[in-house]
Design brief:
Strand order of the largest sheet: 2-3-4-1-5-7-6
Strand content: 15-25%
Mean pLDDT: 92
Helix content: 25-40%
Order of helices and strands: EHEEEHEEHEHH
CATH superfamily: Peptidyl-tRNA hydrolase
Radius of gyration: 16 Å
CATH class: Alpha Beta
Distance between the termini: 13 Å
Number of helices: 5
CATH topology: Rossmann fold
Number of domains: 1
Low-confidence stretches: none
Shape: globular
Number of strands: 7
CATH architecture: 3-Layer(aba) Sandwich
């Protein structure tokens, strides 16, 4: 089984914000396969499944994404067994877990794939690392940086809505990213 998680915030007011580019991307991936999202209250997420791939949109806010990811990984028994009271740290989950999220250090219209890298201050990724006790998972980091990024605090910038032109730029990445997951 493979788990692909798009990060974002669940409320309508965040729908087309830079911080929700993970949701936008995973929505496009699901749409390409004619999948329908279902609310899974047990996981606290919207999910859809195609064969052995589970697509996930956590319905917690970004900073608490780790709880949802850990719950799903545990449910499907994809986490290493515990050793006594301690969880195994630094487990390699890179073949089964992919997280798609915004990255303020990458220019709009570009993306990078990384494995086993630190959060670089991204609170959603920090949450996932803390819950899973590892940073060794695949990440698709979608660039949202523009010249405006340096003119305002990061938290305000990532919660700004994309312009129509920026949305076109982001949408151009979806088919390329679909080949990478």
């Amino acid at each position: 089984m493979k788990i692909i998680v798009g990060l974002g915030n669940p409320e309508e007011k965040y729908k087309l914000t830079r911080h929700n580019v993970g949701f936008m991307t995973i929505d496009a991936l699901a749409e390409r396969q004619n999948l329908t999202w279902q609310n899974n209250k047990k996981f606290g997420a919207l999910v859809c499944k195609n064969n052995d791939i589970l697509y996930v949109k956590p319905q917690t806010f970004m900073n608490n994404s780790g709880r949802v990811v850990a719950t799903i990984m545990s449910y499907y028994q994809l986490l290493p067994k515990k050793l006594g009271l301690l969880k195994i740290k630094d487990s390699n989950l890179s073949k089964i877990l992919t997280i798609i999220h915004d990255d303020i250090d990458i220019e709009l219209g570009k993306f990078k794939i990384s494995v086993d890298s630190r959060s670089a201050g991204h609170k959603g990724i920090e949450s996932i690392i803390n819950y899973l006790k590892t940073k060794n998972f695949k990440r698709i980091r979608i660039g949202v940086k523009t010249e405006m990024a340096e003119k305002m605090p990061t938290d305000k910038f990532v919660l700004q809505k994309f312009s129509q032109e920026e949305i076109k730029t982001i949408k151009n990445l979806f088919s390329i990213i679909a080949e990478q997951v």
